[in-house]
Amino acid sequence: MIPFDIEEWMFPEFADGTNEATVLYHDCGIAFQIRVESRDDQRFVITNQHLLTWCTTIEKISAIAGYSCFSYNSLRADPDDVYHDEDGNTFAILFAPSTKVLS
């Protein structure tokens, strides 16, 4: 089971080659990893070992991470209808249903 105290602190980010990170491959060709940044200053990338320990799947983790971002996303368009990533949560848009493939 995913620890309750980190569920709302999981966020997608570009995969950066972090050792043993669990990686999602999006349809758009971008690879993501899920980072935890909790209130008590825990900072780590979710690995396959986390998935085994928590008895969960990357699908569930990515759904939670996408929801965490989207729940307070503040994307606003400028006058030219261009959206700017002002809060770092733009990835939530990519985590909508049917937008990712797993590898």
Molecular structure report:
This protein has 103 residues and is α+β, with helices and mostly antiparallel strands. Helix content is 23%, strand content 21%. It is built from three helices and five strands. Strands 1, 2, 3, 4 and 5 form a five-stranded antiparallel β-sheet that branches. It is globular, with a radius of gyration of 14 Å. The relative contact order is 0.23. The C terminus is likely disordered.
Helix count, per DSSP?
3
Briefly note the structural class of the backbone.
alpha+beta
Stretches where pLDDT is under 50 for at least 5 consecutive residues are 97-103
Gap between N and C termini, in Å? 22 Å
Helix and strand run: EEEEHHHE
Concise account of the structure shown:
This protein is of the alpha+beta class.
Distinctive features:
103 residues, alpha+beta, 5-stranded antiparallel sheet, 3 helices, globular, disordered C terminus
